[in-house]
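Intended use. Records like the one below are meant for learning the mapping from a protein sequence to its folded structure. Do not use them to infer anything beyond what is encoded.
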Amino acid sequence: MSILIPVSFPKAEEIAKKLPYSAGILLPGLCDPHVHFREPGQSYKETIESGSKAALHGGYTSVFTMPNLHPVPDSLEHLEEETELIKKEAKCPVYPYGSLTVGEKGKELADLDALAPHVIAFSDDGKGVQDKEMMKKAMIEAKKLNKVVALHCEVDALTKNGVIHESEFALSHNLPAIPSSSEYEEVYRDILLAKDTGVKLHICHISTKESCEAVRQAKKEGIDVTCETAPHYLLLDDTMLKDDGSFKMKPPLADPSDRIALLEGLKDGTIDMIATDHAPHSKEEKSKGLLSSSFGIVGLETAFPLLYTYLVKEGVISIEKLIDLMSFAPRRRFSLPYQEGDCTLFDISSSYKIDWEDFFSLGRSTPFNGREVYGACLLTMVQGEVKWKK
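Structure written out for the chain above:
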């Protein structure tokens, strides 16, 4: 056995020779453009320290943290609370988003000009900006600043109090449902606004066939749009639901036809990258079934093994394609240079069972607990320094 290097990256061969392992697959460090580390404001769910440790444990060397925090990073003063924690506690590079609107309330623009040099991009993730004119105003300003806007597309009037996708399961369990249109109608709107303003648009966690097709057509028109999806939307659908908080996320798991469309979108390049939308909550918050549990699951420590096992080993996509989706593409879109010496080593020769008790994240909620997978992370290096080793 030997160290496999499926794609070229700086000093890969040199690094491989010095590794304390004689077998495995050596990849450029993974990059997650969508995580929630909950600090400041909700450190009982996750901290910068625990979240960044989870990232390293999953093979990630760069992560982008969403702004649904307390306080929301809508000004330099508020952002500094987060960046000070990052400086003190982060175990790997953590890049914060700035919010688009004050308090993520969609009523007034955040101080985008002041925030721009210090944030990876702008987003009100966790909420869709409901007012069209406010969204256009934000895009115009972000365009001037040459920053990406990363959007959570959701029409509140359609989501209402829904908890899972509009499906047979929702009907049979008498659960309030969320229609696919709550996502794709705002995707349509924001693509048209991006066409008008010329902003760099990135659409977060797409889950429906309509959203995927909208992005596909927008790219054909030359609109500057990218999108991401997450492992759970590629591997699960609403026919696999259980009345368990570990299956509750937003957007919700959709129809099997949506999952198939997303897989096609991966293969043809419509979907640019895979993010985890790592969203930890306390055990209590996720223990109340589909109706009353909080939205969100964790994913940093399971993403690569799941995708390698069920997409690469099953012949859906190549390992080279997966590496681009999880490492190079996020860096390209968000203009983040690859750091020499950022790499991760995975064991793809033997399987193991996902066990949430082994997570470094404070969050434990995942629908994949107990799944048999290949691709345990053996080692993660940041700029040539070992930051995690099994």
